[in-house]
Amino acid sequence: MTTNLRPLLTQTLDAALDFLHSLDTAPVTATVTPTDLRHRFLQPLNPDPLPPEQVIADLVANTRDALTGMAGGRFFAWAIGGSLPAALAADWLTTAWDQNGGLYASSPAASMVEVAAATWLKQLLGLPAAASFAFVTGCQMAHLTCLAAARHHVYLQHGIDLEAHGLAGAPPPRILTSNRHGSIDRAVHLLGLGSNHIEELPLDHHIHLTPETLQAALAADPTRPTIVILQCGDLNTGSYDDYATLIPLAHRHHAWVHIDGAFGLWAAASPQLRHLTRGVELADSWATDGHKWLNVPYDCGYAFTAHPISHRAAMSHHVSYLIHDPQAYDQLDWTPEWSRRARGFATYAALRQLGTTGVADLINRCCRHAHTLTQALAQLPGVQLIHLSDINQGLVRFLDPRPAATEPDHDTFTDRVVTRIRNQGRAFFVASTWQSRRVMRISVLNWQTSDHDIEVAIEAVAEALQEETKIRSPFL
Length: 476
Ligand SMILES: *Cc1c(COP(=O)(O)O)cnc(C)c1O
Description:
globular, binds pyridoxal-5'-phosphate, 7-stranded mixed β-sheet, 4-stranded antiparallel β-sheet, alpha/beta
């Protein structure tokens, strides 16, 4: 190699450290305006090459105030994890090594770490040791992978080779879901299964899918190829279903059961919380994330199936110019990609940094923080506790202080308080609609979140609430 990379990579290391070390003090919210950002980035492409040092210096300068603090400990919106140190470092090496992780032959180490990490993941998450697996970009693509396997499997039961014939002329599928995430709908669209064939099953007042509801839905149309999708850790409430009852029931009707466990499946890795996921190992496929609760950098989700033959039939493709190794794990047989990032290194590193007890500690700590935060907010005047979950989620609502305030007023007030908290920049939350009401979601998934971060977040919410209350009701 003729280029000396040391100055560039040292400069990059310094920039990365500056960013990471600023997370505790910098605003968690991006403060740039779209106009300013457009001006920084939407420039004509330079006609001539630039020194890489300048490209990186400009990139760092131009992203200033335009990144959020989601890598740090006070980001409680959506379901966002950070990056464990070993995972971050392994991810850098993955880029430097630049391996195409498509085949054992293209990168033996990339293939073998995926096998090792998948074995550990199955143990931690309580999944069958023989389950097939795929490391994909996120839970969205894990759904796609699992549901492609499911599609193959349920149509084969009807004598249809779906990969060859496609869905045209085949009986339409039936996809029975409970409180699902939007990524399920997208996987259904992408697989051509048709969103009209999704049936949303009603939940009881404890937000659970009951066996009676599932039984009635299954029995209503028993001849169609059927996939049942269960949520493992609801996005808003973190609730779990009675998998030990529901899954055998679905199996009696020859349905494939897929589990969306993007973050909630990780409760299985904690001895204190494992009971919540009881029976989940009976399912046919599971989708979860590494870049959420395991705190691996982005581009990391996991698909598992209990039916390796169907999984492989849905994904595998062999051509003469590749080297397929029957003795080894070729990712191309199991993932939807062709060329792909050797993304297993970061997971392997994260799991080794934590070990079994470290993973459990991370899960328990996030849940403890979520409870402390939710309960402390619920004590503030004007805050209504909507849901305190068993895991790392919480829901609260801010009440408009005016005596005649209506439900829509509380909705508007909740949105205003949440926006004000974000604008203050000390904690990042988003509002959501739950059971037709606006609420603020609390979601704790970052390994760095500390007791101090929780205190700061409580103060930030209290202050924003007080300010909004004064605006709404200046004479109170
Ligand atoms: C985040 C999430 C997804 C989508 O996962 P990505 O990793 O963003 O693709 C699916 N289901 C649930 C419950 C989620 O929280």
